């Protein structure tokens, strides 16, 4: 194939996809796209406009108007944006509007990077089904809630761990249960359960699997 290597990382909320994706990109000199940030930016924009994230017309308009500059907003990291993201993400027209940007990133990584890492929910199943390596990263919901709560607390977000756990469970159920590109482990994805793994071991394992995949590419 003409394109450079593509690594697809999927999994539920706060499983460590982003941390692993960033670390892989740094290690191999690849470009990294956190596709969740795109859905968060759309959900956040709809909320800020005073519209309902479940309203297909409003959400699709926000998806079509999205610009890369919107992806760096710190407000996107909160659970309110995550919840709105999960609602707009169930609308097929929203997903369709965001597909070309993601595929283009994988085929032509910015800055002339030799490869790309994308993380999200449907990268291995829909966005990049021919990725060189697919990882499905997961961990027990309680573990994920503890980690995300710690992260939000450090940012000054005064949310309880019980609320974070409830948000994560609701989001996982919506993401796995929707008809449009549901969150599901691709048949050829390697499972990485980080419940009993610290981030350094998870990254080391992901680097090992990537090296194998790059070798297999020749
Ligand atoms: O991108 P995703 O929502 O899947 O997860 P993340 O933002 O990479 O990770 C969520 C939080 O869990 C971060 O604060 C990570 O540092 C932490 N984490 C961890 O402590 N141990 C792991 N094995 C994976 C993630
Ligand atoms: O960081 P965390 O894992 O909590 O969430 P995220 O990756 O930022 O994604 C936020 C929401 O966007 C998810 O709950 C999904 O509903 C949606 N999403 C999606 O549908 N497809 C993707 N490829 C990425 C995110």
From TrEMBL:
Name of the protein in its database record: Cytidylate kinase
The organism's place on the tree of life at top rank: Bacteria
One GO molecular-function entry: dCMP kinase activity
Residues that hold ATP according to the record: 11-19
Any one Gene Ontology cellular component term annotated for this protein: cytoplasm
Location of this chain's protein in the cell: Cytoplasm
Keyword field: ATP-binding, Cytoplasm, Kinase, Nucleotide-binding, Transferase
Organism in which the protein naturally occurs: Futiania mangrovi
């Amino acid at each position: 194939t003409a394109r450079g290597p593509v690594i697809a990382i999927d999994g539920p909320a706060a499983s460590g996809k982003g941390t692993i994706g960033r670390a892989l990109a740094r290690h191999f000199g690849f470009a990294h796209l956190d596709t969740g940030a795109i859905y968060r930016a759309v959900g956040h924009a709809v909320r800020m406009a005073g519209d309902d994230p479940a309203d297909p017309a409003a959400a699709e308009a926000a998806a079509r108007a999205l610009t890369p500059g919107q992806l760096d907003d710190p407000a996107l990291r909160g659970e309110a944006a995550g919840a709105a993201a999960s609602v707009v993400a169930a609308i097929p027209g929203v997903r369709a509007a965001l597909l070309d940007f993601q595929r283009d990133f994988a085929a032509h990584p910015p800055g002339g990077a030799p490869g790309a890492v994308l993380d999200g929910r449907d990268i291995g199943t829909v966005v990049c089904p021919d990725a060189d390596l697919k990882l499905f990263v997961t961990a027990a919901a309680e573990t994920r809630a503890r980690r995300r709560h710690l992260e939000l607390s450090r940012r000054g977000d005064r949310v309880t761990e019980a609320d974070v756990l409830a948000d994560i469970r609701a989001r996982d159920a919506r993401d796995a249960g929707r008809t449009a590109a549901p969150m599901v482990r691709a048949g050829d994805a390697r499972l990485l359960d980080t419940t009993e793994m610290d981030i350094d071991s998870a990254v080391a394992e992901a680097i090992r699997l990537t090296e194998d995949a790059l070798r297999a590419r020749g």
